[in-house]
Amino acid sequence: MLDRTHTSKRLIGETPPEFRGAGRDLRIDACRGIALWWIFLDHVPNNIGSWLTPRNYGFCDAAEIFMFISGVTCALAYGRTRQRDGWSGMIGRSLRRGWDIYAAFLLLTLACAVLVYLTGSDDLADDSNTRILFEQPGASLAHAAILQYRPVNTDVLPVFVIFHVLFAPLLWLLLRAPNVTLGLSLALYALVHVFGWSVPAWPNSVWFFNPLAWQLLIVLGAWCVIEGEKFRPWVMSRPALVLAILYLVFSLVLALSWGIKPLVPQALTDLVFPLDKSNLSPLRLLHFLALAVVALRLIPQDWRGLSSPVLRCARCCGENSLPIYCLGVLLALAGHLTLLDISAGLAMQILLSLAGILMMIAVARLLHAINNKRSRQPQRTQMDETVSPTFSSCQADGTLWPGTRTTSH
After folding, report:
1. How far apart are CA 194 and CA 345, in angstroms?
2. Residue spans with biased composition (Polar residues) (predicted)?
């Protein structure tokens, strides 16, 4: 264990302070939970609840927020695992997480197909991209197994499978040459827009979230964790805040002009819209960066509002992001069916939006309680084993011996 630690220090240099921190930034889980709510609201077609999301007030939506935060959390989690268990432990953890997301994607694909089949709705089968699964089940399942076929709204999960599996080499590069790694990511992003590079998909050869483009947000999130202290003064400066606000106002005017009434010349809106979400349009990327600058400036890490009931619910959803995202996809599919077959009125849209978010919160709290119960059992076992000084895992100064794990929530 000591040899492994000394070797990594010689190769990498000083460990990023974020990897050594024992605390948890509550803003991360809160933002991820709110993004999950926004994604659900946006996934229900023609839903009045989508006006509560950023989609109608600028260029980007919750997808950019969710992707960036995933890069941040991956860097924090896997970076601390590397410090504790070495590279082999970190690689094992990333591969297990990739497998979990892969299994969740396959199960969600089957769940969507079962839901559509039970409803017997042809319109829902077309809108959810599951009709081909019923017409060509063998080919569809085979292509789903290699991440080429995806029902509607499940597109992001295959992207996360790829990123988790490949995060170990990415972290290795970021720890040694963070700026060079970010530069390579930007170069790949630019080449995608210049040459139209994409990843093969089936049956229409369109991967909605092109991983060659969206990788930039994952890399950027991880880079911010490793190089955060160096660029934080610039991000928190007044010029950066002013530029961010000006860009947000510009995007707001254009978005409202596109969706409500012409506030600017039609030629300008036609030039900007529709934005290319599949390849992460530069305007969308800049809009997200502007939102991030404003959020960092206005919401400090110790903000009291993070303990409010609403944000506690958001944090609970953010801590269980994978099951809650899958639940949101199924709820959006059920909400779409309700609007098609029962009523598409305003009251029904509001009811579906509230019911869906409340159900996500209820399931997240249940999962949180189950996880807490499981985590207490090892603690009790460890306390029983450490009653005798002979088996104590602490040094004289109270710190843990190398390799001893602590339970965190």
Report:
1. 44
2. 378-396
